[in-house]
Structure formats: C-alpha cells, structure tokens
Amino acid sequence: MSAIFWVPAIVLVASAVWTVTASKPVYSVVALLLNFVALAVLFLTLSAEFLAMIQLIVYSGAILVLFLFVIALLSSGVAPLSLGPNRLPRIVAPAAICVAVALGLVLAGVATSHGIPAPPRAAYANAGSAGMPGVFGSVGDFGKALFTTYLLPFEVTALILMVAVIGTIVLAGDETPYVASRRRAEQNRKAMREAIAREGD
Amino acid sequence: MPAHLLPMPLANYVSLSAVMFFIGVAGVIVRRNPLIMLMSIELMFNAANLLFVAYARAWLNNAGHIFAFLVITVAAAEAAIALAIVVVAFRSSDRVDVDDVRTLHG
Amino acid sequence: MILVALLLPLAGAALCWAFGPRLRGAAGWLATAAVGLSFIAILVAGSGREALFTWMPGFDFGLSLDRLSLLWSVVITGVGCLIHLYSIGYMHGDRGFARFFAYMNFFIFAMLLLVLSDNWVGLLIGWGLVGLASYFLIGYWFDRPSAVAAARKAFVMNVVGDVGMMFAIFLLVANLHTIRMSDAFASAASLSPALLYAICFGLFVGAAAKSAQVPLHTWLPDAMEGPTPVSALIHAATMVTAGVYLVARCAPLWDQSASAQMLVGTIGALTAISAAILGAAQWDIKRILAYSTMSQIGYMIMGVGVGAYAGGIAHFFTHAFFKAQLFLASGIIIHALGNEQDVRLMGGLRKRMPLAFWGILTGVLAISGIPGFSGFFSKDQIVAGALAHGHPYMYAVGIVTAGITAYYMFRLFFITFLGEYRGNVDPASVGITRETTNAAPHEPGDDAHHAPAWIMGLPVALLIIPTVLAGWLLFGSDASPSPWSRFFAPQFAGPATAAVPIPDWLTTAITFAVVLIGIGVAALRYATSAARADAVARLRSESLNMPKVLTHQYYMDALINFVFVRGARLLGAVFGRIVDPFVIDGAVRESATSAQSLGTAVRALQSGLLRAYAFVIAIGAGCFLVYYLVTGLPHR
Amino acid sequence: MIPLLIILLPLVVGVLLYLLPREDVAVSKIAGAVVAAATVGLAIGGRTEEWTWHWFAHPFVANFHFGATFLSHWLVVLLTLCTFGAVVSTKVARTRSMIASLLFLEGTMAGLFLTRDLLVFALFWDAMLLPVFFVLLSWGPHPSIAWRYFLYNFAGGLVLLLAVAAFGALVGTTDVIGNPAYHGLTSGWAPWILAGLAFAFLVKTPVWPFHTWMPATYEGTPSPMVAVVSGVQSKAGLYGFIAISLALFPQYFAREAPVFAVLGVVSLLYGAFIALVQSDIKLVVAYSSLSHLGLVLLAIASLNHLAIEGAVVYIVAHGLFSALLFIVLGYVEEREETRSLGKLGGLGWKNPRLTGAFCVAALAALGLPGLAGFAGELVILIGVYESGYVWAAILALVAIVTASAYFLRLLQGATQGPEVADLPVRPDLTWIEGLALAPLLFALFYFGVYPHALLASGWLHP
Fold first, then answer.
1. Is the Cβ pair C124, D378 closer than 8 Å?
2. Total count of domains within chain A
C-alpha cells in the first residue's frame, strides 16, 4: 500500500533533481515531463482525479510543449554549462547552504511537530470511494465548487489568461503594433525630409 | 479505505513538497539558463500544488483543489509571458544566459 | 441718551473721514458741533446705566454714567469742544483739515467709551482706541520722520500699558467670572492679597503708560510733535489723565491693598518731582508744558494712589482747564511766530500778544498754586491728603515739587514775555544747536493767518474763567464740606483718615512759602532788569551749562532703546538669519541628504542580476519560515 | 445639495474658463467673481444642508458626506469671501489661469472644510495643494519654491492619509467629523494616529519648526492667491486641530496638549521677533502669520472652552485681515513697484483711500480693540490664563507688544514718511479694487464690534 506513495515520490524527487541539473534544456524538459506524470499519479492517490487530468493536459500538453518550441526557436540552449565563467560564483555555495539549511529546518519542523493539523471534525458530507460522481474530488464536485463558490476567482483567472495572451503577442510578436507604428512614423518623417530637400532644390 | 484517511501520514506529503520546492529554489538561484530557471519555477508551483491537494484530501475540503487549479492556470500564463520575454531578450544573442541581461542594474 | 452722547463724536468722525475733501472748512464746524451736542447730551443724561449688547458669550456690554464718569465726560466734551473750536483757526488751510477733525472726533468718542463703559472690556477697548487716536494725531504730519517715530513710540508704549491692563483683566475675569466692574468691586474682598496686588499692578501698568508715569513716560515729550491743539486736548487735558480715572474708578480695589497704594503713590511722587526737574531744563515751550503735565499728573496719581481720591480728581479737574489754557495760549504764540517753539527765540511778547500773555499768566498762576487760583486748592488737597493718609515722604515731595513747578513755570513766563524780542538773533548766539529744536517745516501753510482771530481767541478767553475760579468749588472746611467733597462723598467711601500731625493751614503756609521761593529764584534769574538786559548771553551760558543728564532725560530713552528695541531686533535677526536658514532648514536638508546617501547605498543591491534577486527573495522567504517555525503557526 | 454645489460650482466653472479665449480677461474675471459671490450666498444660506453619497463600506465605511459644522460654516464663509476679494483684485499676466486656479482652490478647500469624512478630508487636503503648486510654478520667482511648498505639505498629506487609514481600520468608519454617534477611539494606536494628524496640521498651519516653507511661498505667490492661502488655507490645520484632533481624540489630545502649547508659544514669539526685522512687506505679514497662528494653537492646546471660542473668532478674524493685508500689499506693490520697506513711503498723501484700507488691515492685525482681531485675542488669553498656562499668557502679551511694533513699522514704512519722489503718482484705489476689499473690511468691523455673531449660532463639540 505504501508503494503507491513511495514510488511516485521517488520518481518525483529524482526527476526534479534531474531537471535542475540537466546539462541541456531539452533533458530538463524530459525530466520535467516525468515529474509531472509522477505528480499526477500522486494526485490520483489523493482522490483528485480531475486535477490529475488537468496536470497532464495543461502542464505536459501545453506548457512543456511551449518550452520545447522556445528551445527550438532559440537554438542556443545546447551548451548551457559551458558558458564561460559564472558571474555569481559567490552566490552558489551560500545559496546551496541556505537552501539545504532551510530544507533541513522544514523537515525537522515536520518531523518534530505534532501540530500538523488533524482533519476537522465536520467531515465531507458525501465522502465515498474515488471516481464516483458527486463524491469528493470528482469532476462534478469540482465543477460545482468552481462555478458557484469560486466563480469570481475563476473569472479573474480568465482575465489573467487573456492578459497573458495579449502580453505575449505584444512582447514576442515580430511586428508588434508599437513597432509598426514607430516604423510608419519614421517612414513618414523620412518622406517629408526628402520632400523638403527636393523643394529646396 | 475510509474516505478521510490518507494513503500516508500528512507529514510525508509536506516533506516531499518541501524537498521538491527547495530543489526548485536551488535551480532558480544556481542555473543561468533562463529556460531551466523557468522550469525550476514550475517545480516550485508543483510543490505548492501537492500541498494544496494533500491538505484538501486531509481536510476533505475541495477549496484546495480549486486553488491548485488556479495555480496551474496562472502558471500557464506565467510560462507564456516568461517565455515570450526570454525569446525577446535572447532572440539576437547566440547564447542564453540571464547574467547577460542587466538592464535592471540600478 | 448716554449712547447718543457716545456715538455723536463717532458719527462726526465718520462723516469727516468719508466726506472730508468735499466738506472742506465745514468739517471743523461739524466736528465741533458733534462734540458740543455730546456735551449737552451728557449733561441731560446726568446719570444712569444703559445695557447694550452681548459682545461675546458671558461678556455683556453696557454704559454707566456715575459721578466720576460724569466729571470726566463733562471735561472731555466741554474742554474738547473749546479745543475743537480753537483748532478750526489753528488748522485752517492745512492739507488734511478734515482728516484732523475726524481724528479729533474719534478721540472724543474713544475717550467717552473709556470713561462710560461699565465693564473691563469696554474700558480696555476705549483704552486702546484712545491710544490709536493719539497715534494718529501725534503722527498727523506723517511726512515728518520725527512725527512718525514719535507716534510709533507713543503707540507701542501705550500697547505696553494695554497689555498690563489685559493681564489684570485676565486675573479679574478668571477669578471672578464677570467683566462688570461693579460686580468685581463688590467681590474684591474675596481675592487674596497677592492676587489683588497683581491686579492692581497690571492696572497700574496701563495707567502709567497712558498717564506717562515713570518709567513708561518717554513717549509724552515726543508726542509734542503733534499739532498744538492735540497737545492741549490729548496730552494735557484728557487722555493722559485716563490713568487717574482708572485708579479712581478702581478705588475699591486699591482700598483693599495697601502695598498697591504704596506703589502708585510712590510712582506718582517720583514722576512729579523728576518731571518737574526736567521741566526746568527744557527750552521748547511745548516740551516744558509736556513735562509740567507729567509732573502734575504725578500729583494726581499720587493723590488717588494714597487714597485722597477727591483731591486727585479735583486736580484733574482744575488741571484740565489751566493746562488747556496754557497749551492753547502757547499755540497762539507758536502760530504767530511761524512755528517757532524755542523760548530762547521769543521774549518781549507781552505787548505783541496780550491775549496769550494773559492766558499764560493765569495758567502759570494757577499751576504754581497761587492762592485763589484753581490749582492752589486742588494741589493743597493732594499734599494734605498724602499726609492725612500717612505718607510723609510724599507730602515732602509734593511740597518740594510745588516749588520747582513755580520756578520753571515762571521761568517760561519770564523768558517768553519779558525783555526784548529775540526772534531775529542768530540761534547759535543763544546756545541753540539745531538738533535740540524741531522747527516744523510743515505746520499750517501761510494762509493760516486768514482765519478769523476770534476763533482761536475765544476758547482761550473762555478758559480763563474756570482757570481762575474752578478751585473755589473745593473751598470748604471740616464743619461745612466743600461742594466738591459733598458731590463725591458717595463715590469714595474710603477708610477714615488718621489724625493729622500738622494742621491744614500750616501745610498751606509751608507750600505757599516754597512756591514763593521758586518764583523768587525764577525772578532773580530771568526777571531782574540786569537779567533782561543781558538775556542773550545768559541764555547762551545756561544752554551750554545744562547738565547732560537733564538734556538726555536721565538717559531713559537710551536705556529703553538699548534693552528692548535693540534686544528685540537682535533676537529677530538671530532667528531670521541664523536659526531659520541654518538650524531648522539645515535639519531638513540633512535629512534629505541622508536619504540620498541611503539610496546610494541601497543602489549597490540592485545588481540587475536576476538570480541575485531570486536569492534575496529566497532569503526573505526563509526568514518568514524561520519566524513561523520559531513562533509557531498563527492559530485562528 | 448646497454643500456639494459650493464645492462643485467653482471647480466646474474653473474648468470651463479654459474654454474661453485666453485674452478674454474681463469675462473670466466676471465669471470668477460671480461664482465667488454665489458661493458666499450659498455658504451663508446653506448652513444646515447635508449631502451624502456612500462611497465604500469595506474595509471601513467611507462616505462622501458634506455638510457644514459650526466651525466649518464660518471657514467656508471666510473662504468664499476671501476668494471673492482675490478674484476681483486679480491683476496679473494670464488672468484667466489665475482665476481658474483660485476657483480650483476654493472648490477643493470648500470640500476640505465641508466634508464630514476623514478620508475625503485627506483627499481634499492633497487636492488643495495643487492649485497653489501650479500657481507657484508658473508665477513664482523660482520653481524650487513651488517644490518646497509641495513637498513639505504633501509629506504632511501622506502622513495624514496613513493616519486616516489607520483610524478607519480601527474604528470601522471615517464618517466621524461632527458625528455625535462617535464616541472616541481607545486603542494603543490612537497616539500615533494623533501624531500623524498633528504633523500634517502643524506643517500646514505652519507652526514652528515646520514653518520654513512658508516665507518663501508667501513671498513668491501672487497677491490674490496668497491672500487665500494665508487667509484660509493656513486655517486648514487649525480646523483639523479643533474638529478632528480635539473632537475625536479628546483624552489623547489632552495628554499631549502641553507640547502643542509650547509649540504655539514658540511660534508666537519667534514669528513676532523675525517680523520685526524683515524689510520685505510680504515677509513681515508672513511671519506675523506664524506668530498669530501660534496664538490660536496655544488657545486650542489650552483646552479651555473660552479660549477655543476665542480661537474660532480669531481664526475668522485672522483670515479676514491677512487676506486684506495681502491684497492691499499687492496693490501697493503694483503702484510702487517694490516691496522693500526701505524704498516705500509717503503713500498716505498719494493714495489716501488705499492707505485707509491698509491702516484698517494693519490695525486689525495688531489687535486693535474694536476690530475683529482683538476680540479673539482677548478671549483667547483670558481662557489660556484660566486654564493655568500663566507663563504662556504672559509671553503672549510680549508678542502683542511686538506685534504692535512691527505692524506699525510696516504701516508707517509704506504709507508715511517722506514721499518717494521718482515715481509717477499712481491713481488711488479704483472702485473695482475697492470692491475686492469692501466685504472683508465690512466683516472685520462687524465681527469686531459684535463677535458674538460668530458664536451665537451654536457649538460643534463641547
């Protein structure tokens, strides 16, 4: 029974380490994919099947593909660790130490604390076996909450996505509106200068 | 299995999330490739999501699920914007190194 | 009716001020009529009390006319009316004719407000407005720097007095919760002696400033910069006696505080003698009269201070006549001589100006205390009163001062009217150095002489009557009290006086003997035929040998100037030029620079390196983590 | 509705003025004067009107709640009177912009005085700085003066905003000015909130040692504007002290009152002595303002009923005579082309009517009995004495003597003495110039003879 936790957990940590240490971004992407899958499995064991699906679809299907595109686009992500002297050599060691200490602190805190709050007494009304409609974590349950109680955050998220789309277009578009207008203005000025020069003759 | 019981004690999930989170932190600080830094950030997001979902299960309250969902959405938006910035910043350079970008220097 | 009497001069002032240019000569008659009508209204009203309105919450205004204020109002409006009439002639053709009468009428209004108010605040308002009117009139020829300076000095000195009164009023109102004077007097006994002394002290600061008592006296001689009728009205007959009025009005307060009486009596005596000595050292006719005014007011203050109220105010009454008389008569001389005020350049005027001669002669006889003339009776009462109330030193000072007064007044008289006319000798030959004279470049224009002579002559002639006769009101004995003391008996119910060691007739005799000595000395120095023949040389040597301490008025002016005026200006300069720009602004600038350097320091943190920022964020997050681990999670 | 009208009318007309042609000086002046006169009427007539619009309820309640209280009624009357005088007396280059700025200032300050809500108060506090700032930028001798004015006062405004936000968070509503339902704040934060409010108020008034922005501002601002700034804007701080600090934090303010009393007395003397040696006529009045407003602060800090009544009278009186003085000084400067006391003189023969107005203003300022300044001064000092600050009352008397000295120096230096010969004689007060002064002069006399009119109508908080 514990394997259902430990196997994904080990995969999770290992793939995370690989992601961070991979020499090429492409390897990182692969490692991250592994990480996401392991996480989805963990979500399933926690009876969050809808989220598990989302995790796979959005993260693995969309975000990682986006990463791949960018890697391909820049085509310079091939030699990440051979880039010359690190400009922050002094940061790395202390950072590692700090991170390790912080992690240790958290783990120690978790280990020694008896205070991880127990489940509240008012348990979920329709708790049942996973996968059943209307039960905790099911799509229906999730959807009902999302579109009633949490409607406003949901709408705001939609707005954020919208902003992201526009922002991406503005930032990365080859011919952004801003650039275009500037170019047109420049052309106009140039034409006017030439016209004036001609009249001067 | 009673619905309110977790497969494992909650402490395991918290520890797992912490480990993953700090791996992400280390990645952001140590790596110089912006793409890998971004992926490290995704790792941190996921660590947070894991906690949300674990606690949602422990307390049988699906607010955690909702927030995990929102995190995923925001992460998607963030990735899109961040990648756009990376593309703009490094489009014309032959190497990808965040330390090359210092326009924020005061 | 009291209100009508009060407002008539104000209306006159407003009319003269607003329509001055159009009224021209009529302004003078209008103003005179306003004061005259006011005089009649006062007499018609006789006595009474009128409530006016609520000035502030708990501050109810009203007017009251009792015997004391009746006396003052009658003198103010009566003498005021005559002086207005005189001014029509004196100021004829002046550039600001209507303005002058506006100021004069305004003064009458303020003075009436002062004496008619039944409460402290009304009194204070009148007190301040009187000072303002005096300021306007002293500075009437305001293109003359000396007049401007004198006016400012008078005003500021008077504000010192106002402030003293305000202090007394705080004490009274804060402790008795009423501004009605009669209420305050009724409950005066409930005040502690120290408080009472403080109140009397504050009031007396006001009185001393207004009445030119030492050490707040320096403005009065300078105030002679104003036109002569102003000197007659304000700086002799009425305003300067406001201090006497105040002390007499507050008799119930003074009666309770022997130390306050001692203070007032001493200051009065000191002023009487010191001003008399200075009066003997002056050459400017108006300044001689100014010092004599100070000295005579010193008498009055001494009288009311020691508790001889009826005597003190009697001297006010007689003094108002003979001093107005003296000023107006001297005004005739000044006017006729083209604004010459230095007696060394006069002489032999008896034939040329008989009216002035007779006017000044009666005035001099009255002020010197020659029996039968008005000053004799009132001065005698004060001197005897000082002894009766147990102050032998003041008694002695009173007698000595009477002698000095006789000396310098007859000196004035002899130099001016006897001998040869010296108006055409070289000023230097009589010892005049130009700084001591202030020949006015700006007295009324040449056409001044077109005014009919009777306008200026009539008031002088009329004033001769009370100057000679007014004193007989005081004639009486223990058996049959004088009309004066019968009239004021209900006003001043002071404590009974002690037995007098020296009988009254002896006091009179001693005083008269001293007066005769004074006249004798003056006659020896200025009136003998040898002195008359040798007048120019004698005046010259006297001018040159005059003690410096007297020509500089005991250096009081210099002292006040050095300590207060210079001190305040120095303080202002230090604050304005050093503290403000360097200390306070310096602190502000310092904080601005330190903020800047802090910014420079923080700037180094902005490396622009993304990962450094991330690291800093991580450290921050770590700090929170540690904090929560240490303190535990917040519990709801 | 009337309070809203008093606020909006000047603002709207101010904007509309910009639609006029730039050269159309007369129309903008007439429009400004009509608006100002209309607001005078509205202010006097609309005493009891209130108007509320609920703004937000979370995290605390804040309302656009306008309506005059006892003190603010008189302040608005004063404001509208001064604005009227200022508009009519305006004679500068770019008249249209100046009049628009004056109207903006009137509108924002009317908002400040009329609002019953602390948050709105704080917003108007910052808004009223802007017209003066822009006037200083465009007419002042140097932009640094404008920045100095703005930074000092805006720093005060920010602290005020913080304090108000904290107040709102603690109390749950900021709609508390003149609200009888509000019963005081008891919290450990109260002294800090009070300190924040006091900082803003002290800077604005100004009070020593926060006054160093003031002389340059008063000197550099054109006369019409400085008349309103000195006459009314400086009262914003004192109004705050009375209507907010004193009324909303009675026990905390009482605890800190001695500090304010000391600051008041220091300002009183400090301003008086500096005014004694200034040679610029506007600076004399500027420092006298420091001195006089110190007296009002002292009155407020004495916590004495009588003194605060006196303070109300004196606030109005000071507004009247300082506006009058600055307008008159503007006329004098325009005629004599200098502000230096050393070069002025002899105005009395050339311009008797102007001199008369100058005289009344200066005499009122030095506390002449019978004019409005005296009533406030006397009652304040009686109250201060009654409350036990005997030393303060005595020092205030010293300042009164000094005031008479420096105001006479000002008055005599400008109007008396020998005439300055090398200038052509300029015409005396024209009727338009007189019209600007007349309401102020009338009020000065009226409230001087009958100050009870100011108090007869009731009282804000005991």
1. yes
2. 2
